[in-house]
Amino acid sequence: MLNNMTDTEEGEGGPNSQGDGNPKESSPFINSSSASDVEKSQQYDGKNMALFEEEMDNSPMVSSILSSLANYSNLPQGSKEHEEAENEEGAAPSLGTLMGVYLPCIQNIFGVILFLRMTWMVGIGGVFGSFFIVFMCCSTTMLTAISMSAIATNGVVPAGGSYYMISRSLGPEFGGAVGICFYLGTTFAGAMYILGAIELLLVYILPQAAIFKMEGLEGAEMEAAMLNNMRVYGTIVLSFMATVVFVGVKYVNKLALVFLACVILSILAVYAGVIKTAIEPPVFPVCILGNRTLISKGFDVCAKVIEQDNGTITTKLWRIFCDSEFLNATCDEYFANNNVSEIQGIPGVTSGILAENLFGYYLEKGDFLEKRGLSAVQDQEVPITNSNRYVLADITSFFTLLVGIYFPSVTGIMAGSNRSGDLRNAQRSIPIGTIAAITTTSTVYMSAVVLFGACIEGVVLRDKFGEGVNGNLVIGTLAWPSPWVIVIGSFFSTCGAGLQSLTGAPRLLQAISRDSVIPFLKVFGQGKANGEPTWALLLTASICEIGIIIASLDAVAPILSMFFLMCYMFVNLACALQTLLRTPNWRPRFKFYHWALSFLGMSLCLSLMFICSWYYAIVAMVIATCIYKYIEFAGAEKEWGDGIRGISLSAARYALMRLEEGPPHTKNWRPQILVLLSMDAEQNVEQPRLLSLTNQLKAGKGLTIVGTSVVGTFLNNHAEAQKAEQSLRKLMETEKVKGFSQVVISSNLRDGTSHLIQVGGLGGLKHNTVLVSWPRTWKQPEDNLPKYEVVRETTAANMALLVPKNIAAYPSNGERFTEGHIDVWWIVHDGGMLMLLPFLLRQHKVWRKCKMRIFTVAQMDDNSIQMKKDLITFLYHLRIDAEVEVVEMHDSDISAYTYEKTLVMEQRSQILKQMHLTKNEMEREVQLIQNKNATPTSPTSPTTPAGGAATPGQEMQMTWTDKAENQAAACNHYQRLFCPVRNQSNVRRMHTALRLNEVIMKKSKEAKLVLLNMPGPPKNRMGEDNYMEFLEVLTEGLNRVLLVRGGGREVITIYS
């Protein structure tokens, strides 16, 4: 049933899951969809599971799942050659804790810094300072290892190692950003190892191989020659290593044990040398002139003169500082005034030199290496000469520099987790092996700090390149039986580490590329037929060349420190988040972790980043942030159940609970819009410009819910609802509306719209404004859209209502108005919505250049001049810029045209009503009309006399009040023609609508947008068409009208 299970890579939901469609890690919970009905029936036969046949169509049997879990494998070929992969198919992982985790971690942690810079760090920083640096860095990696062990034991960790753990814990954005940083760190580590190997070759093994000769040069010239040699040889070695990796990684893997043996033998040689110094210290004399350390090359005897054949003759040292070999020669003043002394470079562990080396001795670039405790005679006014004969500090040293240079020597703790697929029991081996390796290496580093300080003279420790001890590697002078053990061993170990970096970095980049989270890196997911990442290797070699061009080991080390620290910081963050959020899937087998430890580790990583180099830290963070934002906007969407999603849910829950505490203050009020859209038969949106207006109103702020209703039942029309929701989301993306879509299925559109208004939003995050388009087909009798109920329901719910008319004429988001006006007709006070909406619209680039005008209407007894002054003052306090105009509307007689419009409206309303009546209802209506005709009425009055009971026909036509009006003006001779109008209230309202429309047309016909108070809805359900007719007359002839009805609360305030 699940034979093809591992070939299906569409997520846990199978082929129909709502994922991103990109391949993901294969899952044992995916059911094969290719089995035919016959095959299924054969599978169920004899299993006594016929009752569950329907479920088994979509869900596998427990036995099948358990079988697939037992055989689950999602491990890449990695560094195996294609031929090896074919021969070893099906081979079970066989590596244990020692070979699979412990030794690879040891090999990756011990590296070039231990052999080339550890003694110098102790000499510069002192035993106390260096011990603190080592302890801080080792504590950071130990805390990170604890967090990593928890993550690694929380399920299977396939290819990608740390990248996989971070991305699946913190999401694709963090995973991609940190993955790239880890890749860059690994790449620059390769450059650092190559530079270390070249330094060993040119300084200690074969100095005569230098292309740019350094003999006779001093200062900047010698430094430039050295850097150029590093660049040339580094490029050659990098090309050779990249070729080896390209030709066959199997050779690198086979040599790994040789390189590991070199590292271990070198460290054992150092410890053996320390023990020997207690018995018989080695002879490594250092020549001191005054208190300055002399370069040992160029002379054989550490003395100015020697006695020979009963005479005094000068030495080579004399000739270096004097203009002739005779005793009466003119010599360097410092040389003449100070004595030459010889001290033992390695006095031994029992000599008590430790006390002298306890504290730091930081130097400026070009400073002399001076012996503590020795006095020297020096005239400050005399210029320094022959400085190239002394051992000088090559760089300015300070505490934070030492941290940045040292930290790479504790990286490499991910080596075990990267090999999880080859482990027999990864859940057990990774924590034990990694923590044991860090404990071992930390012990070695801390003991080395103390032992170096206890065995080696301070000036020798500070002599980075061993110039005062005949050009020997300083740590080599301590080794037993010979310094060459350390030199050769460290050379091979650094070469091996460089090869490992050039092998691992391209595979990490390939894993990131194949996840498709960073689109422009897809090309680097390709490779040879056997999966070798050719293009990724080429990019890695190119980036590595940047480190080679920098050429200084001390400058490259802080760079990779940044990237590794950032990676470790996010490992700790991932563990802390998963622990605090109590994710149901967070069940690591490793139990010795705590969120506080993870946060401490994360804090240490962040602190070390800025301690090492604040500007490198900022650059690394900027790179990570840029990649994060790029993935967020352009990357493929992935759902990995990450912790960021969990923290978003927790934050959202907390915020929603806070919103429940009370309604927002007027100062914080903004329209939270529910957009009601209608769909056509194909479930496409009919009014897309409604979302354009939403975008212009919101500008990405606040809540937006886009909703629609589908007619039917949930069981029968669920597919249509899904299609409608996809259409909404697609249109929202096109119009750049940030919000949520919601589709409800109801028996009719009226109820569906009501449901959306009632249940949209969640908790305190609910809509307070409804935006619905003007119903264009409201005059058609077959139109069943809920054109009136929305007004009533929003009023009952104390929500604002926005009804744009002629929505197709509204501008799209790409249009720009270079001039024009937004006119506000402020008839009644609605809480300030009419003032707020133009302000919000003018924040958008479409309406930005439009000016705002506010019109208000003055009645007969109003003081229009005072009204204008008050309105200007009010707008000033509201901080709104607008032109103000007061329009006077005097009383006038109702025209014949008004009566005619009202009569046509009522007749049309009656006809529409008749079309919807059943036969019985029509009979009752006829009886009502007969009763009405039988009722005597005054020839001068079309309505019931005062105090009389209203007829049923009259009650049916009452549209604005619950009781019929009992008083009416007498019809004059001209108006008697129109006395069939049965409701004088309709006449007056029609009169108002026509007068207002006439004034608005006169003032605002050329306006880009007119905002107008929406009259109140009918209090009863009779004569609703009359209401729509009034609105139609009110807005007739205007191009763009936005009818606004407030929600019953103040939404704008003059207070700060």
From TrEMBL:
Compartment annotation: Cell membrane
One GO molecular-function entry: potassium:chloride symporter activity
GO biological process: cell volume homeostasis; chemical synaptic transmission; chloride ion homeostasis; potassium ion homeostasis; potassium ion import across plasma membrane
Amino acid permease/ SLC12A domain mapped to chain residues: 101-274, 392-674
Biased composition regions of type Polar residues, renumbered to the chain: 15-36
Protein origin, superkingdom: Eukaryota
Originating organism: Esox lucius (Northern pike)
Bias kind Low complexity: ranges: 934-953
Residue ranges, annotated region (Disordered): 1-50, 931-953
Keyword Nucleus: no
Catalytic activity: K(+)(in) + chloride(in) = K(+)(out) + chloride(out)
Protein name from the UniProt record: Solute carrier family 12 member 5b
Keywords: Cell membrane, Chloride, Glycoprotein, Ion transport, Membrane, Phosphoprotein, Potassium, Potassium transport, Symport, Transmembrane, Transmembrane helix, Transport
Ranges that cross the membrane: 128-157, 177-206, 232-249, 255-274, 390-410, 430-456, 535-553, 559-580, 592-617
Annotated membrane topology: Multi-pass membrane protein
Domain SLC12A transporter C-terminal residue range list: 688-788, 817-1056
Recorded family membership: Belongs to the SLC12A transporter family. K/Cl co-transporter subfamily.
Gene3D superfamilies given in the database record: Amino acid/polyamine transporter I
Coarse class of the protein's main subcellular location: membrane
